[in-house]
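Protein in question kept underneath.
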Amino acid sequence: MKPALDTHIRAAQVVVPCTDIAASLDFFVGRLGFRIDLIFPADAPSTVVISGYGVCLHLESQAEPVGSGTPLVLRLLCDHAAAHEELPGPDGVRVKWVPAQPVIVLPAGMQEFVMSRNDDIHAWGTGRAGMQYRDLIPGRLGGRFVASHIRIPLGGEVPDYVHFHRVRFQMIFCKAGWVRVVYEDQGPPFVMQAGDCVLQPPEIRHRVLEASEGLEVIEIGCPAVHDTVADHALTLPSSRLRPDRLFSGQRFVRHMAADAEWTPWQVNDSDATGFEACDVGIAAATAGMAEVDVIRSVGTPGQEKVARLTHAGEMLFLFVLQGSFRLDDAAAGATDARGHHLLRGGDSCVIPAGAVYSLRAGAGLRLLKVAL
């Protein structure tokens, strides 16, 4: 179909196929001085938009090297274009009309039990801004969620830039070390310490400035694949302070572990035996869409603490911050090893909706729980 030419074209991008995105970024950004405008996915980039010297390039990962017969592809970003409309040009040139402001696509998702172990040294890969990522939900629950264990081993200044994410939901929990960050309309830069947490509402501008040696954070986002967009025109911190500003109906949250308030853990409207919970404030800031708590075991040493877990939502994610617990599937028999799991520090799991599990723990358990 031939698109109408009156489409309010905002920008043009030349598609450059790349067999090695990291090498291409090193060449164009590191050596030639181009700047990154957009990148996704953050944990293993396969598409990056860069610009410089009046040229905008759309780097796309592909398995085969570019040959002499590779046609030129030009992407035109338009206000009124339907996705992926194409128009053939002379000499094999292909023109694609794409939306300048793409709509967030939220996959229907799927429910499944997922277990991630912390002892897999091959699970780590390099993502955006040189940070190391471990994928905690490899199947992404049908593309609906991504959960990443992120670390910066060496610390120091982080080669980041002011950016935002096209997401429905995104949160960061600091597991170890510290990181200095700054957010749009939220005042001067601040330091997140271990146990601190932030809700990054959709499209809030922010930047990672500096990190301690051995920084580790847990990041959860929806949808799994989403754009990270640079905002080179904005300088942070902002001149305004607007802590109650809404971004797509959500409010920025900064929870500090030093100010934590603990109450008995409510599981399915009843207290769980031997556990306390700290609500980090994300439920109120998202009008109940998401709920994030830190759970800890309390009470008599040596006494087993038990909680019964089930839910009817989109996702229930558990990450072991400290200690260990046993997770038993109520539907599994006593000899069915697949239904009984021991989770230690750094391990995580996703519990599917409708399933019933028992969580059994001794002293010293500390757990991050995220429910959508």
The mean pLDDT is 90.
